[in-house]
Write a structure and sequence with these properties.
It is a multi-pass membrane protein. Keywords: Cell membrane, Membrane, Transmembrane, Transmembrane helix, Transport. By secondary structure, the protein is mainly alpha-helical. It is globular and about 70 Å long. The relative contact order is 0.14.
């Protein structure tokens, strides 16, 4: 395989129109169901896992904390998933790594739906649950990079933001699917039947992801850019991709993680802590809050795609930084609107926050991909994304709970959200300066 090696943001082998549409739609579907799998675990951890997988004589609060601790495992292990699948994707190809991540997630989630409970197998039940959640975390840590690069590296260079945004819609689609499926199953069955076996149905539906993984493996081609450039260059690279990332691109990885913390922190605050705060502290019906979350998530879909397309014309970093500023400012309106207990204002509060987050998340896939050369791009983009996910989403609800317990006010939580948005703003600003510095050095070398 031969050809000139492009700069990190340059594509040299665009896919035909019909091909890139197929790749983008498949990547979006895979991402949506993968995130569905990840989110249904959180719902089940709140509703059924304390009674199913822990001793019946355990105090309810302790059992709930234990169930949420298994949920946290999925976040903690995500960077490891980024490393493992990033290596596979950079060495053996995007398609193989993505299909492997999808198969792992599908099998792990289906396995959770088949697990016997504590009453049947004792302590083996929570241990098996943790092991399968570990596998979920590995899979989701590798899925995003594969899906994003399949779309972006197959797209024409002037349309990377647009096609990359199809992968980003997987998060809101997965969230809506998870809530709708649990709602339908819960409404269709008696409470006892739901607790005994009905909760397993949403997990068993994950077998669809196994089928999508097989489709990716058999019917999609490797992106032209990787086939032409990445595979040729990889043979000349000394050491594994991770070693080169840590040696040559560590600053970009850390700044990418910093860029993502605002989006992930604010998103999980809106879909988890706001629901818990609204129900437990304000006495708002859970159905009202969940309906607001689902409507806001649905509104994100077109905005994410629009923002990705706009970034192709006006640049990734500018629209990203505007989103960080607006999301940080809106954090101070979020809780006062929630505290009105008005369904309309609650929906407005969450929806506007989600729309501002879309300004960041829409162009993010293309922004992260363009930070790294082709031969280490899967590793670099995945690692930056997953570091930001742990620092942001993994700890945000815990930090918010601690802040409210200490100050009995949501203002410190808003300050915390604003600070995370400032971190992301400054990280993207620094990424822009690093990019300009590299271009200046390249021109000086040529000159």
């Amino acid at each position: 395989m031969t050809g000139k090696v492009p700069a990190p943001g340059e594509s040299i082998v665009p896919a035909p129109g019909a091909s890139i549409v197929k790749v983008a739609v498949t990547a979006a579907a895979a991402a949506a169901i993968e995130w569905y799998d990840f989110f249904i675990y959180g719902t089940a951890a709140a509703l059924v896992f304390p009674a199913q997988f822990f001793p019946i004589d355990l105090p309810p609060l302790v059992a709930q904390i234990a169930a949420f601790s298994t949920f946290a495992v999925g976040f903690i292990v995500r960077p490891l998933g980024g490393v493992v699948f990033g290596h596979l994707g950079d060495v053996f190809g995007r398609k193989r790594a993505l299909s492997g991540a999808l198969l792992l997630m599908g099998l792990a989630t289906t396995g959770i739906g088949l697990l016997p409970g504590y009453a049947q197998v004792g302590v083996a039940a929570p241990l098996a649950l943790v092991a399968l959640r570990f596998a979920q975390g590995l899979a989701v840590g590798g899925q995003w990079g594969g899906a994003a690069l399949m779309a972006i590296e197959s797209a024409p260079s002037g349309r990377r933001g647009f096609y990359g945004s199809f992968v980003q819609i997987g998060v809101p689609v997965g969230l809506v699917l998870a809530n709708v499926v649990f709602l339908l199953v819960g409404k269709s069955l008696a409470p006892q039947a739901f607790q005994v076996w009905g909760w397993r149905l949403p997990f068993l539906l994950s077998v669809v992801l196994v089928l999508i993984g097989g489709y990716v493996r058999r019917h999609l081609e490797e992106p032209g850019e990787f086939e032409t450039v990445g595979a040729a260059v990889a043979g000349a690279v000394q050491g594994p991709p991770l070693a080169r990332i840590l040696r040559d691109h560590l600053g970009d990885v850390l700044l990418a993680g910093g860029a993502f913390v605002a989006n992930n922190t604010c998103f999980y605050m809106a879909i988890t802590y706001v629901v818990a705060y609204g129900t437990a502290t304000l006495g708002i019906a859970k159905e009202t809050l969940l309906a607001a979350v689902m409507l806001a998530s649905a509104l994100m879909l077109p905005v994410l795609i629009i923002c990705g397309g706009v970034s192709d014309k006006f640049g990734r970093r500018g629209i990203f930084m505007i989103g960080a500023v607006l999301a940080g400012l809106w954090a101070f309106a979020l809780f006062p609107l929630i505290e009105t207990a008005s369904p309309v204002l609650i929906t407005l509060a969450i929806a506007v926050e989600m729309l501002f987050l879309s300004l960041m998340y829409g162009p993010q896939a293309a922004l992260f991909a363009e930070l790294f050369p082709v031969e280490v791009r899967y590793s670099g983009a995945s690692l930056g994304y997953q570091i930001g996910s742990v620092v942001g989403g993994g700890f945000a609800p815990i930090i918010a709970t601690a802040l409210f317990a200490r100050f009995q006010s949501t203002v410190p939580i808003s300050v915390y959200l604003g600070a995370m948005c400032a971190v992301s703003f400054l990280s993207v600003l620094a990424l822009g300066r690093r990019a300009r510095g590299r271009r200046a050095r390249a021109r000086a070398t040529v000159g």
